[in-house]
Write a structure and sequence with these properties.
By secondary structure, this protein is α/β, with parallel strands linked by helices. The chain is built from 19 helices and eight strands. It has an eight-stranded mixed sheet, sandwiched between helices. Strand 5, helix 8 and strand 6 form a beta-alpha-beta unit. Helix 9 packs across helix 12 and helix 10 packs across helix 13. The longest helix is centred in the C-terminal third of the chain and has 35 residues. It is globular, with a radius of gyration of 23 Å. The N terminus is likely disordered. This is Lysosomal Pro-X carboxypeptidase. GO terms for molecular function: peptidase activity.
Length: 503
Amino acid sequence: MKPHIPLHQLLLLFLLIFLPSSATTAHNIPNLSPHRRTVLIGDLDIISSSISEDYETFFFTQTLDHFNYRPASYATFKQRYVVNYKYWGGAKSSAPIFAYLGEEEELDYDVLGIGFLKDNAPHFKALQVYIEHRFYEKSIPFGSMEVAIKNESIRGYFNSAQAIADYIEVLLYLRKKLSAKTSPIIVIGGSYGVMNLNRVKSQHIALGALASSAPILYFDDLTPEDGYYSVVTKDFKETSESCYQTIQKSWSEIDKVASMPNGLSILSKRFKSCSPLNCSSDLKYYLEAIYCVVAQYEDPPSFSVSQICGGIDGASEGTDILDRIFAGVVSLQGNQPCYDVNENNDDSETDVGWGWQTCSEMVMPIGRGSNDTMFPLASLYLKQYSEDCKNIYGVPPRPHWVTTYYGGYNIKLVLHRFASNIIFSNGLRDPYSSGGVLEDISDNVLAVYTVNGSHCLDILPARESDPRWLVMQRKREVEIIEGWIKQYYDDLAFKKSNNMSNN
């Protein structure tokens, strides 16, 4: 029996809807989360019992505004972090600290779903620390997300620079609390969670960083706007040429049927939608989300492009294009009484937060400005996008701020001169890899990637069934980190030896 993954949850996770032409709306940049949240939804109610007692939850009194000195800036809020001491070798032995930097969702998903720390903590005798991003779940200043987002003054503090300062504050506090001044810190993050903390901003706190699936080049014009959708298309085309062609032809077929008398009713019946379609776009967005989520979070054999293409290509002879497309949906989702095509309007707190972030600084120009993908043409019009964001929040986004503040142009030269000890890891089947660092910058700013990997797959929990290429990718990352820590200990020993000689 195929696993049942409710499609409305996929849509809540993945608000990648790009309307054609001037109808482009805000909230249209795909989530960068390491997790296909549908795997974990339902677990959070019992998370306290599903997570080992080795994980302890704490709250740090965090400063609201790290960069100003107005009275309001000194307000504080409680920021959640979780610590696992089980394997830590202790401060006296300068045992390392592995710190996971939370991304655009609640920390529970990371503690439950990130495997790199707990899989490698025994080997390194590392302390495990997970820090929640401000304005998510238990780390929302002044109450709920709804209150925070509606308050113009409060939501202004919801940005990546403030979040980076938060992480540094928590880590410095922990070092002091644990008397672990000489314990090296390795920061780990998935996608957005580490894409802006590239060690150029934090060399005084972190020995090194593992940045998994971080599309740091998907801003301004550094990456072609259709890069994301081109990779999705490539994933399907490499899996099955006929499947790719069927999907490519399906969009005009949907519009053709929709234009007929009772066309929307016909489409609703053919795709067994739980409620009547209001327009053909509802169905197209639904299908786009399925194809893109599967490509981004591919996890064979339970969740893969091959499943969809198997259904499309395996339909009985004589089946028309739309029935083949529906067969692909059924192959992935299982046979259901109906499919929630329209159920994508009730945003979770995570979606609300990501909506603000993408309408302020995280403006990633993801669109389809040329017709070389399997999707309909849908360029991202920044002028209309800006107007939509302004209508929602009262202020326009700053689409060039990320490259202004963090850089991006001449990335090879900049990182070669100023950065050290970074691993940029990617899987080339991940659509976001199109904006990732895919070649070594220097001897210690390294690109580790696999042809078959998907989004953040390398930092998810290891399994006995993992393919050899994934095992080897993780092994390579561990070896690099081992090298950093060995060099650090050698330097530490040399410093102590010199101090003793001078005394």
